[in-house]
């Protein structure tokens, strides 16, 4: 972190990020839950843990008197959560209300989630998936950014309905105790699944392997003087708006030599998550206005990348990214 408060990019991790990520206030605070369970820097993948082994779970919260005592009435958008007034909230506790029939959810999965976050003291709903399309919110189970949902959903089958009791001390000074009701409703694609579009003349050539990982061939000649965006696959999901929290797979190479300098695919193909306003201008231009399910190709001059930043590994470089847009969510205002 520089003296001006701007997060400095590195060769590993999310190179395109230019400032700290702002996420839901309750969820951001809950990153204290998994302190020590995930490294610093960009999103990291733990691979594919064996769900049957609790040691592979980031937290593996167990049931307790408080989580067992929370009453859950109804289903879907009509679910009502009631927290007993005398609940102790001595520790992080998780009770499985009903077990689903899907595969177990693990760290770095991308899932659609139905949830409520309830203030245990007042009963107020602090946040819920009701603000999402069809009452669902896409969530990347990244311990660095979504640890609350990791703690609630990990190592349980898709379709399981869960109550997580979370002491306020885990959320910061003077925070109230919180109850999370959550269900991972479905797994979401981790590669763009839109309709292929004919290549744009003059743009780099992109080929995909059987897993969807791209390789890029730079054409002869100079890079464009302004940012150029081409759609490689046309999705039909939600449209990315400015400031949205997006989940993507991406590959970045330099126009000058075609060398890869950053890629989510190089981290066990674990998707990355960030705000559109938290990345360099060229990457932001590539995302905003596109639909989920799309794959886009963007070529940006240094002015929309890292410019003439003295000593930066991408100083004066024109950059090329291939981006699979997997999910987008409006970011709730800070409370």
Question: What would your notes on this structure say?
Answer:
This protein has 335 residues and is mostly beta strands. The chain is built from four helices and 17 strands. The strands form four sheets. Strands 9, 12, 13, 14, 15, 16 and 17 form a seven-stranded antiparallel sheet that branches. Strands 3, 4, 5, 6, 7 and 8 form a six-stranded antiparallel sheet that branches. A two-stranded antiparallel sheet has the order 1-2. A hairpin with a 5-residue loop joins strand 4 and strand 5. The longest helix is centred in the middle third of the chain and has 7 residues. It starts with 24 loop residues before the first helix and ends in a 6-residue tail after the last strand. The N terminus is likely disordered.
Overview features:
29% strand, 335 residues, elongated, 4 helices
Overall outline: elongated
Number of helices: 4
Number of strands: 17
Mean pLDDT: 84
First-residue to last-residue Cα separation: 25 Å
Q: Tell me roughly what share of residues is in helical segments.
A: under 10%
Order of helices and strands: HHEEEEEEHEEEEEEEEEHEE
- Radius of gyration over alpha carbons? 21 Å
Task: Extract low-pLDDT stretches.
Answer: 1-14, 17-55
Main beta sheet strand tally, sense and closure = 7 strands, antiparallel
Overview in brief:
By secondary structure, this protein is mainly beta. It contains four helices and 17 strands.
Reconstruct the topology from this structure.
Blueprint: H1 25-29, H2 65-69, E1 71-73, E2 80-82, E3 93-98, E4 110-119, E5 125-128, E6 137-140, H3 147-153, E7 161-166, E8 178-187, E9 195-196, E10 205-208, E11 214-217, E12 228-234, E13 245-254, E14 260-263, E15 272-275, H4 281-287, E16 295-300, E17 319-329
Antiparallel strand pairs: 1-2, 3-7, 4-5, 4-6, 4-8, 7-8, 9-12, 10-11, 12-16, 13-14, 13-15, 13-17, 16-17
């Amino acid at each position: 972190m520089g003296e001006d408060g701007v997060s400095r990019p590195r060769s590993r991790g999310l190179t395109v990020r230019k400032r700290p990520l702002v996420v839901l206030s309750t969820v951001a605070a809950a990153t204290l839950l998994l302190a020590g369970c995930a490294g610093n820097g960009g999103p990291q993948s733990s691979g594919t843990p064996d769900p049957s082994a609790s040691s592979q779970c980031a937290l593996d919260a167990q049931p307790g008197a408080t989580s067992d005592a929370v009453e859950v009435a109804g289903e879907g958008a009509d679910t009502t959560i009631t927290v007993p007034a005398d609940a102790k909230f001595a520790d992080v506790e998780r009770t499985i209300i009903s077990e689903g029939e899907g595969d177990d959810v693990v760290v770095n999965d991308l899932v659609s989630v139905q949830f409520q976050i309830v203030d245990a003291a007042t009963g107020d709903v602090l946040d819920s998936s009701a603000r999402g399309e069809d009452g669902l919110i896409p969530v990347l189970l990244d311990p660095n950014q979504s640890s609350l949902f990791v703690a609630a959903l990990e190592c349980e089958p898709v379709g399981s309905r869960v109550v997580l009791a979370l002491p306020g001390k885990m959320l910061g000074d003077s925070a109230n105790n919180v109850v999370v009701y959550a269900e991972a409703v479905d797994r979401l694609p981790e590669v763009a699944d839109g309709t292929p579009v004919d290549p744009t003349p003059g743009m780099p050539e992109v080929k995909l392997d059987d897993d969807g990982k791209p390789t890029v061939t730079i054409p002869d000649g100079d890079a464009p003087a302004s940012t150029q965006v081409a759609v490689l696959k046309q999705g039909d999901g939600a449209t990315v708006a400015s400031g949205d929290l997006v989940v993507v797979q991406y590959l970045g190479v330099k126009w000058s030599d075609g060398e890869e300098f950053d890629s989510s695919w190089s981290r066990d193909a674990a998707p990355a998550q960030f705000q559109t306003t938290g990345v360099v201008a060229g990457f932001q231009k590539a995302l905003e206005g596109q639909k989920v399910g799309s794959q886009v190709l963007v070529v940006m001059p240094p002015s929309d990348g890292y410019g003439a930043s003295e000593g930066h590994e991408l100083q004066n470089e024109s950059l090329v990214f291939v981006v699979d847009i997997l999910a987008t969510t409006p970011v709730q205002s800070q409370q």
